[in-house]
Amino acid sequence: MPVSSDPLAWLSALDGVPSAFAASRDGIDVLLRDRGLRRTSPETTTESLLRGAHASAVLEGSTSTLAELRDGGGDQVARDAVRVSTELLGLVPVLAQSPLQAFARIHALAATGSLPEEELGRPRDAESAQRLQGLSQLLLAESEAPALVVAAVVHADLATAAPFASHNGIVARAVERLVLVARGVDEKSLVVPEAGHLALRAAYESNLRGYREGGRPGVHSWLLYAAEAYAAAAEASPLRGDAG
Predict the structure, then answer these.
(1) 21: domain range?
(2) What's the CA gap between 28 and 205, in Å, rounded?
(3) The CATH number of the domain where 192 resides is what?
């Protein structure tokens, strides 16, 4: 494939990015191979999704505990994140065929009860609609970029563009997890990328600002951060008995 036809080729050429993401992918693969083969169950996936919902909610301002979520409680933001998590994996085929539809459904799940029905799943304005369309085309384009790089870029783009009227962080982190599942990194969704970001919260938030405002250096820094966050995501997996 000519480099010019791959919209993400330049990201994989940034200094330190290939090796950082290769190391993160190796760590995830080792976890899933060595522990997952012995301990994988639907309950493990459910636990990973719950941990992810809790971490994403906290990053969005929730003060609820993981125990409260396990008991079916929690504040509004936490319940919104859990509602997304319960339907997220069913959107894997939708993401592959129509990313725009997947984005809209995730936002509708997150914002139900918080926004008027006519705003659910709909971009804020024409510019936001254009950003979502561009991101959809990026996901549908042929690219040799590692799936982890794709997931990191989609996450940052959704979080910083804030195309919806609310819940953009929850949507961004949910789409990131969905990309990891859909692209074969973590088909049973056993790592917890949201918890990786929560563990590195100060770096997460500063690097998102850099992605939004810092041009190419900001994107570069975000990717190096994201590789570190994916290593933390593997550590947060319920496959590890001491995680969470």
Answers:
(1) 3-235
(2) 23
(3) 1.10.3290.10
In tens, the pLDDT along 39-91 reads 678 999 999 999 999 999 999 999 999 999 999 999 999 999 999 999 999 99
Total domains present in the chain? 1
pTM of the entire predicted model: 0.94
Task: Report the pLDDT averaged over residues 205-227.
Answer: 97
Q: Is residue 89 a part of any domain in this protein?
A: yes
Phi-psi region of 121 (alpha: psi -120 to 50; beta: other; left: phi over 0): left
| Mean pLDDT within 200-218 | 97
Residues in the chain: 244
140 vs 155: CA distance, rounded Å: 16
112 strand-pairing partners: 115
- How much is the CA Rg of the chain, to the nearest whole Å? 17
DSSP annotation of 191 reads S
Cβ(76)–Cβ(114) below 8 Å = yes
Give SS3 for 186: coil
CB atoms within 10 A of CB 46: 14
